[in-house]
Structure formats: C-alpha cells, structure tokens
Write a structure and sequence with these properties.
Order of helices and strands: HHHHHHHHHHHH
Number of strands: 0
Structural class: mainly alpha
Largest sheet: none
Number of domains: 1
Number of helices: 12
Shape: globular
Helix content: over 70%
Amino acid sequence: MNTTKTIPLTLIALFAFAANSVFCRLALNSEQVPPLDFTVIRLISASLVLAVIIVLQNKIKLTQMTNYGSYAGALYLFIYAAGFSYAYVSLGTATGALILFACVQFTMLFKAWLNGSRMGLQEHIGVLLSVVGFVYFVLPELEKPSLVGCILMAIAGVAWGFYSIVGSKSKQPLYDTASNFLRLMPISLLGLVFILVNSGLSITPMGWVYTIASGALASGVGYAIWYLVLPNLAPSIAAVCQLSVPIWAAAGGILLVNEPIDMHLAISTTVILGGILLVILAKAKR
C-alpha cells in the first residue's frame, strides 16, 4: 500500500477509535443505555456490517470465514469490548481513552521486552515517567467509584494491546477482522436473549443510533481499516499514532458530551503520553 493511501486510512482508523469512546459515553451517559445492551448490540452490528461487506465483495463465502482470524483474537476482542463498555459507566471520555491507550502501549512494550528487546537509558526514563504519571493519575481515583472503571479500562487496554499484536501479522485484514467478530456472534446472541428475557431492550432512538454507530462504523469498519494499515506501519509509527487517540477523544468529549478537562487529567496525559513517546522515539532511532 502506498503512502497516499496509508495516511488517510490511518487517520480514519484513529478517528474511529476516538469516536468509539464518544459514542459509548453518549449512549451510556446521555441515553442511559445499559452497558450489557451496548456491548451486545455493538458486537452484533459490527458482525453484520462486516458480513455484508464480505458478501458484497463476492470473493469468499461466510462459511469459509473460519479459515481466517483466530479464537485468540476473538477472545481479546470480547474482553476489550466488555471492559470498555462497563468502564465508561463511571469514566469520562478523555479519562477512559487515556487509560485504554496507555495500557495498550504498556502491553506492547512489555511483550517486546519478553521477546528479547532491551531498553536503553532514554527508554527506561520514558517508562519510569509514564508509570509515575499513571500513579499520579490513579491515586485520586482510589476513593472514588471510578476506581472500578479504571481497572476495567486497564483490562480492556491490555486486551486491545494483544489484539493489535495479533493484527500486526494479518495478511487478510478484512477477513481476519470479520472472522473475529463472527466468532463472537453465538455469545452475542446469547447475551441478546438474556437481555430480552430479563429486562427487554428499552433503548431510546438516539441510544440505538450511538450504539449501532459504535458497532457498525467505529468498530466494524474502523478495525478493518486499522488491520489493513497496521502491516504497512512501522511499530513505532503505529504506537505514536495511537497516542493521539486520547486527544481526539478528549476533543469529542468536550464538544459532544460537554465534559470539562481538569488540570489533573491534563498533567497526567502529558506525563504518561510524553513518557511513552520517549520510548517509541528511542526505539525508532535504534
């Protein structure tokens, strides 16, 4: 893929990541969509959109989709989607995105370290700076209900980190993404049945719009595009790109969810992302 295609597609994928945080907050906070309902509908709508795209391409039958993707990728996707939804019950848009993508980077750096990658002085300073920033960010949350949200979003971030690691090896990004979502269809349908039996789907019209947009557009199409560009990006570039997502999400939270950005969050974001950026730049230099 040439640069003229890679750059705009990468930007679309990053905006999709940020849009997911905004859509989730709008659905859960503004429209009071239960997190289980949001997760189930999001996964089902993403699966259906990707299935339609596959059928329209007319290159492969849906029955052959098990040849692509993996159960590991589907598991990481499910853990991420569930943790993401429940975390945003108590977290703000920017806060959730910061925790998510900081943990994504920590996961990928730790995996690289396990694979034998050794860090220099600048990388050690960057990691230490990020950890200090993260501790500074989390400490005030220890006595708040949002601590549970922080933990759930951290788990989601670790899962997305492993999902990105799996995706970096993808040779058929659209098929792999579709397969991962389709593998979750049985559990998603069971969740839908559970909801219908116990409480029913009492979701406002705009709640449906935000939830389906998160699944069909920001998740289904967005993740497929990310898998498409990921093999064409150097790991350091891909990591730097993801660091911009909390900023876009914060902007969306301010404009669409009327969420303020306080000084504590601004300082935490600067220190954490700055530390990670030091590590990425050091790796790129080597």
